[in-house]
Amino acid sequence: LVPSSSPSTCSYTISENMQPIDFQLDKPYEPKVAVDGNNMVVVVDDERSTTTYVIFYSLAEGDGKWVIKNAFRMGAYSTGWNSVALAGKTALVGLANDSILSVYDLNEFG
Q1: pLDDT for residue 78
Q2: How many other CB atoms are found less than 10 A from the CB of residue 4?
């Protein structure tokens, strides 16, 4: 495979198009992010409420902003050792304190 752009061009494009993501949490800690196309999943601890959240976003067609589609409160704070992976509309979420791997599919993205 031949790259379509040089690394410096890609880096510039990414830095020029970055946008902040609003987690809507008081004190987010150690967010883990996975992106695939127009879908994004974030696993983040909230230090203030000592709770872990899984938040699903989709990229809005008009303005290209990330919009929250669904969010789940997963329970006790997990000290930031969470993990997340995304393929299409299937997300795998691992929470450190629970030693549980959760699978989310399609509907969480609206």
Answers
A1: 61
A2: 7
